[in-house]
Write a structure and sequence with these properties.
The protein is an alpha/beta fold. Strands 13-12-9-14-17-18-19-20 form an eight-stranded mixed β-sheet, with helices on both faces. Strands 3-2-1-4-5-6 form a six-stranded parallel β-sheet, with helices on both faces. A two-stranded antiparallel sheet has the order 7-8. The longest helix has 26 residues. Helix 1 runs parallel beside helix 2, helix 4 packs across helix 7 and helix 9 packs across helix 13. The chain is elongated. Strand 1, helix 1 and strand 2 form a beta-alpha-beta unit. It folds into two domains: about 170 residues, Rossmann fold, CATH 3.40.50.1950; about 220 residues, CoaB-like (Rossmann fold). Bound molecules: cytidine-5'-triphosphate. Cytidine-5'-triphosphate binds next to helix 11 and strand 17.
Length: about 400
């Protein structure tokens, strides 16, 4: 599948550089075109002649060591993917800060197609706060990171820091180039709720709200298109590439979400859940009486979002929605603190052009530290993609944290 793909490999100064010879062979076997750029330090670990012979192409090292002037850092960017392996702590930090003091870095700075880095270093360096901050920065910018593996390190210690094997890097490149960035949520399980719950009064009447379920449906659709394994728990039937479970009342929704929670990576509560239900459901249709008034006693429903936020484990994400008709941000911040979820997506339901029943939305994403990010007015499809891209970064952060605490 990599036939005729143009692959640019960047090698930095680390002992794992020798393994990249195998990676080049794997790409060549797949009939890809391979070009190689090295940092000057990488030459301490692997020779130019070896790489030239394996790739069948000229190998690039220095910005200025040229016979005829060609801006190499620009011509090298004409590749389908740039793979930096091994990526040293030094190069990672320079990449994250836009430093271009060698040909590899200048090329990376000008590269606007997928980039994959395979870090390799000593465990303490990998755990270093600044390195982790820089990795996070690169990840947020859309770079693919193949986190190092655990094992025997060249420095003699056992720990996390080993570059991933050439076969794993090859597979990742294959995945990126064949699926593009279209399946970044592959392997992740998402549960999404949608619609307004109905609380029955008698066999023909119920209490509900104005939620159309369009936002939850758009999120389910985007999540499944991004490769996630989706379960949609909705108050209406839907067709799509997901498992659809119907829940009519808040209690039914609560039971399903609770049962499914342990197997999920992320739960998004987009449903408008009724806070109260009728205390005494009437088995028979309630008849009109002579009285001019009537009242129905209501009792509280479970707060699903609050409940699952307390139950979830540290690898899981729970996201809430917050529909407000006034003081949007202030109320949303109070809500995320009260519910204990990881994010809250706030939207203003007083506006006719967005929110309930409309095809467009404008939302604020609020995190646990009460930072806010506005997603400008757009279709619910586009807003849902932006929300999921934000969640994707949080899931990747969690994966890295798990690796660090191992
Ligand atoms: N929610 C829930 N269970 C409830 C009520 C709400 O899980 N019984 C979830 C919604 O799915 C949404 C979030 O909580 O993700 C916020 O819902 P919202 O109706 O805005 O807030 P409430 O907690 O109901 O507070 P209020 O109605 O007072 O604004």
């Amino acid at each position: 599948m990599l036939k005729d793909k143009n692959i640019l490999i960047g090698i930095t100064g680390g002992i794992a550089a020798y393994k990249v010879c195998n990676l080049i062979r794997l790409f060549k076997k797949a009939e890809a075109n391979v070009r190689v750029v090295l940092t000057p330090n990488a030459l301490n670990f692997v020779t130019k002649l070896t790489l030239q012979t394996l790739s069948g192409n000229e190998v690039y090292i220095d910005n200025f060591e040229i016979d005829e002037y060609k801006p190499e850092h620009i011509s090298l960017t004409e590749a389908d993917i740039f793979v930096i392996a091994p990526a040293s702590a030094n190069t990672i930090s320079k990449l994250a800060n836009g430093i271009c003091d060698n040909l590899l870095l200048s090329t990376a700075c000008a590269f606007n197609k997928p980039m994959l880095i395979a870090p390799a270093m000593n465990e303490n360096m990998w755990n270093n706060k600044f390195i982790q901050e820089n990795i996070e920065k690169l990840q947020r910018s859309g770079m693919f990171i193949l986190n190092p593996a655990e094992g025997f390190l060249a420095c003699g210690a056992n720990g996390t820091g080993r570059m991933r094997e050439p076969e794993e890097i090859y597979e990742k490149v294959n995945e990126i180039l064949t699926q593009g960035n279209r399946a970044p949520l592959k392997g992740k399980k998402f549960l999404i709720t949608a619609g307004g719950t109905r609380e029955k009064i008698d066999p023909v009447r119920y209490i509900t709200n104005a939620s159309s379920g369009k936002m939850g449906l758009a999120i389910a659709d985007s999540a499944s298109k991004m490769g996630a394994d989706v379960t949609l728990v909705s108050t209406f039937e839907s067709n799509g590439d997901w498992e659809n479970i119907i829940a009519e009342t808040a209690q039914e929704m609560s039971d399903i979400v609770d049962k499914k929670l342990p197997e999920m990576d992320c739960v998004i509560m987009a449903a408008a859940v009724s806070d109260y239900k009728v205390k005494n459901y009437s088995e028979q249709k309630i008849k009109k009486t002579d009285s001019d008034t009537m009242s129905i006693e209501l009792v509280k429903n479970p707060d699903i979002l609050k409940q699952i936020s307390a139950e979830k484990n540290s690898n899981q994400l729970v996201i809430g929605f917050c529909a407000e008709s006034e003081n949007l941000i202030e109320n949303a911040k109070k809500k995320i603190q009260a519910k204990g979820c990881d994010l809250i997506i706030a939207n203003d339901i007083s506006r006719k052009d967005i929110g309930f029943n409309s095809n467009e939305n404008e939302v604020y994403i609020i995190d646990k530290n009460l930072n806010e990010k506005k997603l400008d007015k757009d279709t619910k499809q586009n807003i849902s993609k932006d929300i999921l891209n934000y969640i994707l970064v949080l899931l990747q952060d969690k994966e890295r944290e798990t690796l660090l605490t191992k």
